[in-house]
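Progress against Task 2.4 (sequence-to-structure conversion) is shown through the following example record, which the project officer requested during the mid-term review.
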Amino acid sequence: MQCIETLPPCDELVADKGYDANALRHWLAERGTTAVIPPMRHRRVQFPYDKRVYNKRNVIERMFCRFKDWRRLATRCDRKVQNFLATVTIAAIVNWWL
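Structure tokens generated for the chain above:
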């Protein structure tokens, strides 16, 4: 959650089933963020989520595939979160531009 904590609160956080944890859902609710995370199958309480928003997650996944071309991002060379997020921003701008 270290990278998420440095960002300002947003309306929604879209993530896959690997991030389905009560602690994360509670922390996001405190920030006023809606968790768009499908629940794990073994959960007793199946949380609802917006399937239309979740299906658009592939756009983000494709961007992360493009980030793998950037060695600095793929190997996470930056030790500080601010430097890592700055590198992600630069890579996103260059990928969007091309």
